[in-house]
Known about the structure:
mainly alpha; two-stranded antiparallel ribbon; 9% strand; 2 domains
Amino acid sequence: HVPVCPSYTLDNNLLTTEQRQFYEDNGYLLIKNLVSDEDIERFRREFMRICKREVKPPGVMIMKDESLRSQFGQSEKVVNKVQDFQEDEELFRYCTLPEV
């Protein structure tokens, strides 16, 4: 009996077989220019505001890579993940984009 690995994508006409396989193997897929430059800039600004604690959405969790602190101090460059940001309307808008 050979264990079956779960499949995380479904057959559709949105992704090529190669894209699906890359996602299955790596857990992410990069699609360039999927989101407009204007939107990316808006999300980047909001990310920076969260990192600098200019805004504090309820429940947001900021994960930092402490090994980078000696190189970058307290800057946003040590932040490797922001999670539970659903209460931040601007950043959560990314999740609702039809392209995504």
